[in-house]
Amino acid sequence: MLIIGIAGGSGSGKTTVVKKIVKSLPEDSVAVVPQDAYYYDNGHLSQEEKDKINFDHPNSIEWDLLNHHVNMLKTGHQINMPTYSYVDCARGKETVLIKPKEIVIIEGILILTNPALRNQLDIKIFVSTDSDDRLMRILRRDISERGRTYEEALTHYETFVKPMHQQFIEPTKMFADVIIPQGGNNKVAIDIVVSRIKMNLTSKPISTP
After folding, report:
1. Which residue ranges in the chain fall short of pLDDT 50?
2. How far are the Cα atoms of 97, 121, 147, 158, 202 from residue 85, in angstroms, in the given order?
3. Does residue 207 form part of some domain?
4. In a domain, 30, yes or no
5. Cα distance between residue 113 and residue 173, in whole Å
6. Residue 134 is part of a domain; what is its CATH number?
7. Element at 153 (helix H, strand E)
8. Which end of the chain has fewer surrounding CB within 10 Å, N or C?
């Protein structure tokens, strides 16, 4: 099994990179575990309190659970991955069954900030994209998917996203084995990563306990 971590700033194109990698690999050989599923459940908070949640700080993630789940997959166990709603700031009642595959991709802005998780990754990738491009994507996403107005999205970016990116996310580029500039538009870099992954693929099936 190969454990791959794909990090990068919010709006950098990580999800596009993941999709292109998955599409280039054998069908049903990849399991994807998004960091976003492991935000702490804050559904009990008031709306005013929810508005103050800093989703870009490492303390917002339940790392113990994420690391436990990654370890379970590595040892051949399936996991019940949580689901999370940004609108409600809460975990859903339903979970997603993730089975161990030849390749497991962990994706998220903060995954390289956690030493225990970094130690579980065989390949660490950082998607690097111009800050203006990221800002435009973040604004579109926050308005269309997270129920924020333009002003709210811009304030959230200025208050949380930009300073947290500079303090926590950008510095983790130093831990990356591969840096992909221009996100999903960098076909050459993605092809190189896919080739490296295929070299590491094993023909042996995943053993289950």
Report:
1. 203-204, 206-208
2. 17, 26, 11, 22, 36
3. no
4. yes
5. 10
6. 3.40.50.300
7. helix 150-156
8. C
Residue type, position 57, single letter: H
CA 134, chain centre distance (Å): 15
Model confidence, pTM: 0.88
Alpha helices in 26-130 (DSSP H): 47-50, 63-74, 115-118
Question: How far is 7 from 19, CA to CA, in rounded Å?
Answer: 14
Q: Any idea what DSSP says for residue 52?
A: T
Extract the tokens encoding 86.
Answer: 């940004």
Interior/surface letters 87-116, b for 16+ CB within 10 angstroms, e for the rest: eebbbeeeeeebebbbbbbbbbbbbbbbee
Q: Map tokens 């591969």 to a residue.
A: 178
Q: What is the DSSP string of 5-17?
A: EEEE-TTSSHHHH
Residue-wise pLDDT tens digits, 140-154 = 888 887 778 888 888
What is the number of domains present in the chain? Answer: 1
| 187-199 b/e (C-beta count within 10 Å ≥ 16 → b) | eebbeebbeebee
Residue range of the domain that includes 39: 2-200
Of 90, 127, 97, nearest in space to 14 by CA: 127
- The number of residues making up the chain comes to 209
